């Protein structure tokens, strides 16, 4: 069945616009063209930024109760259109329809939490009289919106990661410009429709589609952009930091997440969690399980059960509810993953299962005996490949877990609370999940990493705080 190609418009300052040129959005499963989307120019991005800045500067701030109302209406809109949002996510990206439905539910929660946190955006009184000579001074600090936020989002969570930037920005009273991934812009445009329908004043949200090389620099470097919020690869993140200068930045740059399985672990629970954590969204997940370090005593049983669970996964049509794993985002990425696996095999790694590519599909793959110098051991593979290596004890597992320039999430399976707390103290990560894989997150928690995994923390309340400026107020009273 041929899907009718839909022509989309981008949102600039409250106006839906066509572009001078456009690009095609295709389904990675079969390369069928789904839509054409405007390919914005640098000038159009500049216009979007200037409209947002002018809107923010010239009109009174949106009252808190109005921000709450708008965000609540957006979440209601998303709830009513739940299946439509899910179909878009599954069509333009890598997720199965089941995974897409889950993402929509999370995005709804992200927007609802944003509405709740708008109510809780508060300051604090300051005891100025703690300083001798300041007995006649009283005051407080208050958080104010900072202005225009620039957001750049990736393809792997095309709705919820946009919601994680737009929701907090609006809750804080800012304007925001979103540049979504060119592979998956339709989800962001659908979310923009929800904000327009909810009555967000014109100018507070623009979704500008197009190539990063054309519009990205303008978004990052324009003086009206007060903060850049980026989720994506480390190389792009480092380039943005250099160009942004003294702007505030929030960076989530991926990971190479470890999971430790000790000999007292619940084996069935560990296998199930690691299998799901490694292969959901075809492995294209920044907190997905990539390296598993298993106690030598448990290692043979773990491998047998892990291979059995992996073989049972169904790879196929994303829209089939029985499918567990769909394609990668494009064939180029699947080829790259294949090359990384082949490099590891030539260096002495053992292929336990998988290692096959067909177009954009790459079969769920388990590697063992992977040497430390292999690229798949040191870098983020962002594909359905997981390494399982034995370790003598927790100390060795922690040492190997920390031996990469990433530190987003980790997991550990153990029933020994002392071992768990040792891992908590010594693992260099932003989050550690006990008796869960690294692939666990709720949208309210602080989310971010150490080392090359990024700068700052997302999670709705923490993003709102980052997207505001503290202002101190002090009154010098008369006697």
TrEMBL record:
Keyword annotations of the record: Oxidoreductase
InterPro entries from the UniProt entry: Ald_DH/histidinol_DH (IPR016161), Ald_DH_C (IPR016163), Ald_DH_N (IPR016162), Aldehyde_DH_dom (IPR015590), ALDH-related_metabolic_enz (IPR051020)
Pfam families with a match to the protein in the record: Aldedh
GO function term, MF aspect, one: lactaldehyde dehydrogenase (NAD+) activity
EC numbers, comma separated: 1.2.1.97
Catalytic activity: (2S)-3-sulfolactaldehyde + NAD(+) + H2O = (2S)-3-sulfolactate + NADH + 2 H(+)
Domain Aldehyde dehydrogenase: 21-473
Tagged with keyword Oxidoreductase: yes
Family: Belongs to the aldehyde dehydrogenase family.
Function summary: Part of the sulfo-TAL (or sulfo-SFT) pathway, a D-sulfoquinovose degradation pathway that produces sulfolactate (SL). Catalyzes the oxidation of 3-sulfolactaldehyde (SLA) to sulfolactate (SL).
Name used for this protein in its record: 3-sulfolactaldehyde dehydrogenase
Source species: Halobacillus faecis
Taxonomic path: Bacteria, Bacillati, Bacillota, Bacilli, Bacillales
């Amino acid at each position: 069945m041929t899907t009718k190609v839909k022509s989309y418009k981008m949102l600039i300052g409250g106006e839906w616009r066509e572009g001078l040129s456009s690009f095609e959005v295709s389904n990675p499963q079969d390369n069928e063209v789904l839509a054409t989307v405007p390919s914005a120019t640098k000038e159009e991005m500049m216009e979007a930024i200037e409209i947002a800045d002018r809107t923010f500067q010239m009109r009174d701030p949106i009252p808190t109760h109005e921000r709450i109302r708008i965000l609540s209406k957006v979440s209601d809109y998303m709830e009513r259109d739940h299946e439509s949002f899910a179909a878009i996510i599954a069509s333009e990206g890598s997720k199965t329809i089941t995974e897409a439905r889950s993402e929509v539910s999370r995005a709804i929660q992200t927007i609802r939490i944003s509405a709740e946190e708008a109510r809780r955006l508060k300051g604090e009184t300051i005891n100025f009289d703690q300083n001798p000579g300041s007995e006649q001074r009283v005051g407080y600090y208050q958080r104010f919106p900072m202005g225009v936020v620039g957001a750049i989002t990736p393809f792997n969570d095309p709705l919820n990661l946009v919601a994680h930037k737009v929701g907090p920005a609006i809750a804080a009273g800012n304007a925001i410009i979103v540049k979504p991934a060119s592979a998956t812009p339709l989800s962001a445009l659908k979310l923009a429709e929800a904000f327009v329908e909810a009555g967000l004043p014109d100018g507070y949200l623009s979704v500008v589609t197009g190539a990063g090389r054309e519009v990205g620099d303008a978004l990052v470097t324009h003086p009206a952009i007060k903060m850049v919020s980026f989720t994506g690869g480390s190389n792009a993140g480092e380039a943005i930091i250099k160009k942004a200068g003294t702007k505030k930045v929030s960076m989530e740059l991926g990971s190479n997440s470890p999971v430790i399985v000790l000999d007292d672990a619940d084996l069935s629970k560990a296998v199930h969690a690691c299998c799901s954590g490694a292969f959901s969204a075809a492995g294209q997940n920044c907190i997905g399980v990539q390296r598993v370090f298993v106690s030598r005593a448990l290692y043979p049983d773990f491998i047998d059960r892990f291979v059995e669970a992996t073989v049972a996964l169904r790879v196929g049509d994303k829209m089939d509810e029985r499918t567990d794993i769909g394609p990668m985002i494009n064939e180029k990425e699947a080829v790259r993953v294949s090359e990384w696996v082949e490099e590891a095999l030539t260096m002495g790694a053992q292929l336990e299962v998988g290692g096959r590519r067909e177009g954009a599909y790459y079969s769920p793959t388990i590697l063992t005996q992977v040497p430390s110098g292999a690229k798949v051991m040191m870098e983020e593979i962002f594909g359905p490949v997981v390494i399982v290596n034995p370790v003598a004890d927790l100390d060795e597992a922690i040492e190997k877990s920390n031996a990469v320039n990433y530190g987003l999430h980790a997991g550990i399976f153990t029933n020994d609370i002392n071992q768990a707390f040792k891992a908590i103290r010594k693992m260099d990560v932003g989050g550690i999940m006990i008796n869960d894989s690294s692939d666990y997150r709720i949208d309210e928690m602080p989310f971010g990493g150490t080392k090359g995994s990024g700068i700052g923390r997302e999670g709705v309340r923490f993003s709102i705080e980052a997207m505001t400026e503290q202002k101190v107020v002090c009154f010098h009273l008369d006697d």
